[in-house]
Amino acid sequence: MTVQLAVALNGDSFDAGHWIRQVRLADEAGLDFVTFEDRFGRHGPDAVQVAARVAPLTRHVGLVPVATTTHTEPFHLSTALATLDWVSRGRAGWQVRISTDPAEAALLGRRRPLPVEDLLAEAGDAIEVVRRLWDSWEDDAIIKDVATGRYIDRDRLHYIDFAGAHFSVKGPSIVPRPPQGQPVVAALAHGPQVWDALDADVFFVTPADADDAARIVGRIVPEKKIFADLTVGGHVPGDAATFNGTPGQLADLIQSWWTVSGVDGFRLRVGDVADITEGLVPELRRRGLFQPSAHTTLRERLGLPVAVNRYAARPEEIPVA
Amino acid sequence: MPKQIILAAHFPGVNNTTVWSDPRAGSQIDFDSFEYLARTAERGLFDFFFLAEGLRLREQRGLIHDLDVVGRPDTITVLTALAAVTEHLGLAGTLNATYHEPYELARQLATLDHLSGGRAAWNVVTSPGAFFGENFRRGGFLDHADRYVRAGEFIETARKLWDSDGGDFAIRNSQFDIEGRFGAPRSPQGHPIILQAGDSDGGRELAAKHSDAIFSRHHQIDDARRFYRDVKDRLAKYGRTEDSLKIIPGVSYVLGDSDADAQEKAHHIRRQQVSPQTAILLLEQLWNTDLSGYDAEGPLPDIDPVLDEDDTIIKGRAGMYPDRLKTAAEWRARAEAKNLSIRELVIEVTGRQNFIGTAARVAEQLDEYVQTDACDGFILVSHLTPAGLDDFVDQVVPLLQERGVFRTAYSGTTLRENLGLA
Ligand SMILES: Cc1cc2nc3c(=O)[nH]c(=O)nc-3n(C[C@H](O)[C@H](O)[C@H](O)COP(=O)(O)O)c2cc1C
């Protein structure tokens, strides 16, 4: 077992070259994934599109944009992220975000932000819809059967018929099931309100120290992948612990947190990817703590199980002819 | 100087034009297919790449339509990825004004424009009825007339957002009440190119008022000329010149070594496009009722079409037959006169390729269309994914260049410049 490494990018550049340079550095260093921060009203490009823009120019690194469930259409989220998975050949993820800010609501014309509990419940419904839509095509739905003239077997496409408090969605998706089946769903979680409520595969948590990290790991169900967020070279106090020091000291910190707490990996919030690929990554590799994964999909890199389609008939359920 | 021809490449879509049964047909969803066609179009110095959109899978007789290609990527996401593998090609996507919101979509289009260096285009469509609405929060909330009110105000709103240069805005109109900071600085084109594809009076008026180009379905030369005049005559009252709105019909073509060879190929493709099952389904789209009991190799039904436009048998596709009874009578007369089966008739009357012949003949005809104001260019719809435009780029483009009606190099850096709209 080695530690998994991700970087969180929070840039506001509209220059494609900037993003290509940053994500290529991560790709070449063998990092597991990059997250792209976003929120409505910020100065900066749409994160899903930034991920799509760099996808054809990178090969290994996972691409995990933030996309907001408040005010948006779960159907569009699902098809956009499925498409990101297609254009990246199985490297897509999604960092779920809710919006509590009335100023963001005003941008979209929805004027009354709901209480946080409701927004989280709505996010939970959105994840459910997005996931069902990803599964709404079975992997072998496209049959191209010339004899019967049929391109698809429509019995292998499924209405999702979701009805919840905030929206209802019929389905199926307009996009065939993406390469990973289920792209990786992640969320930043400051407490059980999030990690107990959202059906994510990965949680970004914000421990203050190694013991705190251990406590958090103990409270989250073991199937989840847990990444500790660390702000590297930051001077502004935020939600995550801040590190300032040499690459060797950062490697020491990662080594001790990882050993003590059992987190799966670290998401380093950096200003520039080079801040960690030049010093930290070679140091962790030298210590045998980090080893770039040979897997091609993000699910595989993270050690997530193959995503079984909730709608596909299990072998034992297929009636005998 | 003769008019210069605009050329665009339509990624083969979810109707029976696309022949998936051909052994050469590639994936409709792998990025490789999109990349291949986009690179081909750029090799041919095309103005733009074009994607259609449908926000729900089509249904016929209440079942998901299974005879044509089904499924495609999200428009904005795949276009943004294509910006990575092309340099000059415009990236045009169909996006529905009914099921998007201005702030979010304007931001996405601005992002595409920035990340592509000024190559974004938006084909504004409304949507067929409440059918799509079942996939969205708002449901089927607008009728036909209101959809164009919304589309018009949507475009006006988006342009204000683009003009805000990332700054503060406050917009109140009959459809939208929004305010805040846009967050995207002015993009290379200022305003991404706007195309419009509605054909009703409301759709044409919207185009005359707001759009840079029309994706039209008028391709018979006389009909195309009438449409061209009709729309261009609407421009003056908005203070616009005729060359500020480009008319670009979607057209198909077949090339051959001789004209006879091309005709033969065209017929072969038509038979691939219209299987017996597809023939019945296409007939149902006019008759608007279940004809599954009819034999495709037999005669046309003698019952009349069902005239219920609120409950059409096909859902998720724009209406194609304004006068069902008249069209049905024409089809019957033609089938009787030539003793055609349902399938033979459908092969003749639907979707026949628009330009068939040697490369020289096709180049000549395309040029005639443009020089005689039947249109300003073409969105080429090929029947094969992804290599369907290879022959056009290799054979027809050089002839258009020889005629002096098509560029020999990209002159502008943005799509707007290449279209002559800067
Ligand atoms: C050539 C052409 C292409 C179209 N492509 C699409 C499309 O890709 N997606 C879509 O939802 N609607 C599409 N439409 C439908 C139009 O946007 C519009 O909703 C429809 O034509 C009804 O409006 P109308 O009555 O003004 O024609 C298309 C229409 C035409 C004429």
TrEMBL record, chain A:
<dbReference type="GO" id="GO:0016705">
    <property type="term" value="F:oxidoreductase activity, acting on paired donors, with incorporation or reduction of molecular oxygen"/>
</dbReference>
<dbReference type="GO" id="GO:0004497">
    <property type="term" value="F:monooxygenase activity"/>
</dbReference>
<dbReference type="InterPro" id="IPR011251">
    <property type="entry name" value="Luciferase-like_dom"/>
</dbReference>
<keyword id="KW-0503">Monooxygenase</keyword>
<feature type="domain" description="Luciferase-like">
    <location>
        <begin position="12"/>
        <end position="217"/>
    </location>
</feature>
<keyword id="KW-0560">Oxidoreductase</keyword>
<dbReference type="InterPro" id="IPR036661">
    <property type="entry name" value="Luciferase-like_sf"/>
</dbReference>
<keyword id="KW-0288">FMN</keyword>
<keyword id="KW-0285">Flavoprotein</keyword>
<protein>
    <submittedName>
        <fullName>Luciferase-like monooxygenase</fullName>
    </submittedName>
</protein>
<dbReference type="InterPro" id="IPR051260">
    <property type="entry name" value="Diverse_substr_monoxygenases"/>
</dbReference>
<dbReference type="Pfam" id="PF00296">
    <property type="entry name" value="Bac_luciferase"/>
</dbReference>
TrEMBL record, chain B:
<dbReference type="InterPro" id="IPR051260">
    <property type="entry name" value="Diverse_substr_monoxygenases"/>
</dbReference>
<keyword id="KW-0288">FMN</keyword>
<protein>
    <submittedName>
        <fullName>Flavin-dependent oxidoreductase, luciferase family (Includes alkanesulfonate monooxygenase SsuD and methylene tetrahydromethanopterin reductase)</fullName>
    </submittedName>
</protein>
<keyword id="KW-0560">Oxidoreductase</keyword>
<dbReference type="InterPro" id="IPR016215">
    <property type="entry name" value="NTA_MOA"/>
</dbReference>
<feature type="binding site">
    <location>
        <position position="200"/>
    </location>
    <ligand>
        <name>FMN</name>
    </ligand>
</feature>
<dbReference type="InterPro" id="IPR011251">
    <property type="entry name" value="Luciferase-like_dom"/>
</dbReference>
<comment type="similarity">
    <text>Belongs to the NtaA/SnaA/DszA monooxygenase family.</text>
</comment>
<dbReference type="Pfam" id="PF00296">
    <property type="entry name" value="Bac_luciferase"/>
</dbReference>
<dbReference type="GO" id="GO:0004497">
    <property type="term" value="F:monooxygenase activity"/>
</dbReference>
<feature type="binding site">
    <location>
        <position position="148"/>
    </location>
    <ligand>
        <name>FMN</name>
    </ligand>
</feature>
<dbReference type="InterPro" id="IPR036661">
    <property type="entry name" value="Luciferase-like_sf"/>
</dbReference>
<feature type="domain" description="Luciferase-like">
    <location>
        <begin position="22"/>
        <end position="372"/>
    </location>
</feature>
<keyword id="KW-0503">Monooxygenase</keyword>
<feature type="binding site">
    <location>
        <position position="144"/>
    </location>
    <ligand>
        <name>FMN</name>
    </ligand>
</feature>
<keyword id="KW-0285">Flavoprotein</keyword>
<feature type="binding site">
    <location>
        <position position="94"/>
    </location>
    <ligand>
        <name>FMN</name>
    </ligand>
</feature>
<dbReference type="GO" id="GO:0016705">
    <property type="term" value="F:oxidoreductase activity, acting on paired donors, with incorporation or reduction of molecular oxygen"/>
</dbReference>
